[in-house]
Amino acid sequence: MEKNILLIVLLLLPAILFSQVVEDVKLSGPVNVLNPDWGTNILISNITPYGAISGVKTSSGTIWLAVNDTALTTSSGIILFKSTNNGLNWVLGSTGIGYRTWIKRIEMIKTPNDSVFCFFNFGNNVYVWNLNNNIVKNIDTNHTNLAYDFDVTSTSNNSMYLFTVPVLRYYSSTDYGVTWLDRGIIESNARNPSVAKSKTGDSLYLSYRAPVITPVVNSSIKIAGLYEPYPGTLYQTSAGIQTLLPAGTNRGEFKPASANGVVWMFYTEGTTGNINIYCMTSTNSGINYSTPINVAANPNVDEYWFDVDTRGNGASCYCDFIWYADSLQSGPSTNYTDKLLYKYSSFSAPNYFTGLTQISQYPPFWANNLFIPIIIEIPTNILGAAWVGLNGPNKQLFWNRSDFASVIQEKGIKTELYSLSQNYPNPFNPSTKIDFAIPKSGFVNLKVYDLLGRKVIVLISKQMNAGSYTLDLDASSLTSGVYFYKLEVNGFVDVKNMTVLK
Predict the structure, then answer these.
(1) Cβ proximity of 385 and 340 under 8 Å
(2) pTM
(3) What are the tens digits of pLDDT across the range 111-136?
(4) Cα–Cα distance between 112 and 119 in angstroms, integer?
(5) From CA 500, how far away is CA 502, in angstroms rounded?
(6) Which terminus of the chain has a smaller tally of CB atoms within 10 A, N or C?
């Protein structure tokens, strides 16, 4: 009897769910129609960050977001938000850091065994907060070295490397942050270290300003190729240390990214009213770099506050790039004047950026607090972004994500009927196929929903020609459970259920 009741419920669920589908969290304020591959903006928090934000996703599926906060509604200077469903819902963490001040930089990283760490500046020191045991540690316990700024990364053998300035030196830990060794000086006087680990190996690319001149933003920018011969130690690669950009030009931001021997080096150039973003690329592990290409330059718009990262595996590696496009208009920001934008390139064509998309429905805005938008790569098929946006007069923390979860193949078979087939295999882990047919061209929506009717993946949302198709769905980002997929085209609607079993 219980089995029969369960079967009836499963059969009725599609009709129940999709008579009133909950697409995403609904918010007040102006929302325009944007690229459907990116969903509706989701509210993380009503609290306006006081400074930096950073995030990371563990292989177990949890997204952590660390936020500099001095709001009276909390007791911490750094608070944590957590999501276990790819950003659909967020909860405030139970612990925080009590240093209630503006924190210039926060960096979250994880080691391959899913240990999560939050690094941050306080005074002239760098601290590491181990989220697994809630212990906070000063990296340089003797306070002998100042640390105005820093960056940090981890390698595949669980080593962590920290780079600090004004004396550019590096520290390493091979015991999950319990002990740190001062490994020596790379440059005697430097600023703004920014390190990227290759997506497909343990090569590191460390960029920084040196020698330092006045103003600092006009200093030359160097980049060093590094590798790890054994845990806790770095050597220079054959690329060595080279001056990538000469002194004399205002370059407020720069950041590298790398995958499969390709290095992307992004940087801003210019002053207010004429700030653009450029990129230089190397296809031989940083030995040689291309001439700069302009990747974000619209007239009468300043482009800055960017973030970059890489995703994918093997031949399917991509460089993702988000930035703030500021129209410098008089009056308040709107969804049409100030935008968070997105592009990407592949390692096979690193100089070609495509997929221009506006992902913000609540406009970002400039502030002295430096809460710069961030990317959180969510392997293997979802890309997330977090930023501070305007919702009426309120400055709130938002999230949006894009899905890269399907490959569509046309079967070349004519059809006279609309149809949506049952996926096969089913249950599955992590991939399955979905066949569908449309006798007339039209705008096709094929989306996946959870049992609560919340959209979790956009598989198709575009104009398609008449024909029969097979879609390969990669559900690596989904947890075990029952889901529904819904086809809508030219007034035709059909829903099927499928089971992810991990």
Answers:
(1) yes
(2) 0.80
(3) 988 999 999 998 889 999 999 999 99
(4) 17
(5) 6
(6) N
